[in-house]
Every structure is written in structure tokens, then in C-alpha cells.
Amino acid sequence: MKNQWLSSGVLAAALLATTAVSGAQDIPRMPDSKPDFSGIYTQPSTVNPTGPRGNLIFNPDKMAPVKPGAESLLYEPRNGDPRHDEPRAMCLPSGFPSGMLYILPIQIVQNPKYIVIIPELQRAARIIPTDGRPHRTGLEPSYYGDSVGKWEGDTLVIDSVNFKRWILDDYHYTDPTKTRWHSDALHTIEHLKREGNKLLYRITIDDPKIFTKPFSQDFELTLRPDWDELGLLEYVCEENNRCAGGNAAHRMPSRRHSDVFEEDCNELSDTCSHHSGARDTRGAVA
After folding, report:
1. Which pTM does this prediction carry?
2. 169 vs 171: CA distance, rounded Å
3. Span 16-30, mean pLDDT?
4. Alpha-carbon distance 51 to 216, whole Å?
């Protein structure tokens, strides 16, 4: 009987191991055996969003406590100047992480040395080495920071530093009286892992000038192979752009995005950039 139980235990362990290996092999891989993230994805969708308009912004219940006296660093009152209130309306960069958490698709291009993350928003490509190299030194702070990546098993970890102070997310469409910012001490860590046609995306925000500790929020992107033929659409924004009457020049007669896009696009009516092309509305994601 003892040998029978032992045999059963060994068999169960072998089945579990086989299942785990099979699951890991279900995703496409690069020639170097790393997971292949290449493709066009839907915009990130917040996992278990909370609060009003909780998708695509950092949710209060997931954020770390704000340091005493740092409220004025996190929140700035809107003052009527679009360069401050909605920099994209004046063709200024969206920056990171704001540019990643937007309502347009994201394309990923990958080779053994680099991964390139290209939001359709402003086509602001992030070219990230994945060989585990250290951060560059002597660079001026930038809107998107300095990013380096490394693999931890099948998970890609991207570490970013050297940011200039800029808008953190699109919180200003939740509360129109103020914008939410990060400091120049921002440090982000992204974890990307593919499961089937889903890309699991976790971003950790570490901003010691504002928060008492780091915090993380989970998002999910869905791979859309049917968008490959169309590709990303052109996004044009010109210096000194102006909006007549403060209304948008967003022109999207039909789209491949989710139904929430139309609602959010109306909210973003002060964004002047011209986004041309057509989307297949049958591509809506439930």
C-alpha cells in the first residue's frame, strides 16, 4: 500500500510538471527561446478598476499613502494653460507612464537584443535593451526616462529612471480641477508576461518625494492579430497647434477600439492633434 501511495504521488507530480511545461510552451517564442511579445494590442485595461473612471489611471485604493506635505507635488490645480493642464493639446509629449496608459492601441516589436513599445498615441517609441545592461549615465532627465530590461524566466522586467517632472496619468478627466504629477525622483518597474493572447502588465511606481512606499497596479492587454494588416494609424501633432473654439480635430469616423473609446474621446475634446484613418468597429473588445 505504501508503494502504491508513493507511485500515485510521483505520477501526480509528473502530471503537474508536464502541465506547467505545456503551458509555458503554448506561447510563441523567439529563436533564443524567450517569449515573443510581438504584435498589436488593445489599450491596457485596468484589472479590477475602482473609483470613478477607474480604467487607465492609478486607482486610489492601490496607491501608496502620500507623504506629509507632498500633496502639492502630486496634485496641481488646473490653471487654464493647456501646456500645464493637458500638454498633449499643445503637442507636448505625453510622457511615461501616462503615454502607456491611454485609449489607443500599442504595438510591440521584438528582437533578441531589444524590445520596442510603440503606443499609437504620438508614436512615441520606447526602444528598450533586454540584455540586463545598467542605466546610462550623464543624460538629462526626459519625459520617458531611461529604460533597461532583463528577463526573469518568461517575464520581462523593465526598469526606468531619470525622469523629468511631468503628468502622472489622465486623472484630470476624473477631477477637472486638478492634474496628477510625478516628481523627478520617479522610478518605475514594469513586469510583462504573456499568457495566451493576453499580455499581463504590472507597473510599480516608486516616487520617494511623493509616496511613503512603492505601489503597483495590474493591467491587461489583448493581442489583436486582425489589426496587423491595418497597423498603427498616423498620429500627427504639430508645434504651436491650436484648436478653434477649444474643440478637437480628432477624426475617427469608425474605429477598431472598444466602445468606451467614443465616450473617452469626447472627454478628450481639448486634444488638438489629428489622428487620421479608419478602424473596423467589428474589432470592438467586450
Report:
1. 0.80
2. 6
3. 62
4. 16
Return the pLDDT at 222: 98
The C-alpha atoms of residue 184 and residue 203 are separated, in whole angstroms, by 17
End-to-end C-alpha distance for the chain, whole angstroms: 53
- 280 within some domain: no
261's grid cell = 473609446
* Non-local CB neighbours of 60 within 8 Å, separated by 6+ positions: 50, 51
Q: Establish if 252 belongs to a structural domain.
A: no
In-domain check, residue 243: no
Cell of 273: 492633434
Whichever domain contains 152, its CATH number is: 2.40.128
- Please count the other Cβ atoms lying within 10 Å of the Cβ belonging to residue 246: 11
At residue 236, the pLDDT reads 84
Alpha-carbon distance of 176 to 255, in angstroms, equals 27
Listing DSSP states for 186-224 in one string gives -EEEEEEEEETTEEEEEEEEE-TTTBSS-EEEEEEEEB-
> How far is residue 27's CA from residue 181's CA, in Å, rounded to a whole number?
37
1 within a domain of the structure (yes/no): no
Quick one: which H or E segment has residue 84?
A: helix 82-85
The total number of structural domains that make up the chain: 1
Domain housing 154:
39-60+74-85+93-230
Cell of 139: 543624460
228-278 pLDDT, tens per residue?
Answer: 999 999 988 876 666 543 433 333 333 444 433 333 434 443 444 445 444
Tell me if the bond preceding 97 is cis, omega within 30° of 0.
yes
- CA dihedral of 190, 39, 93, 218, whole degrees rounded to 10: -30
Q: How far is Cα of residue 139 from the mean position of the Cα atoms in its chain?
A: 23
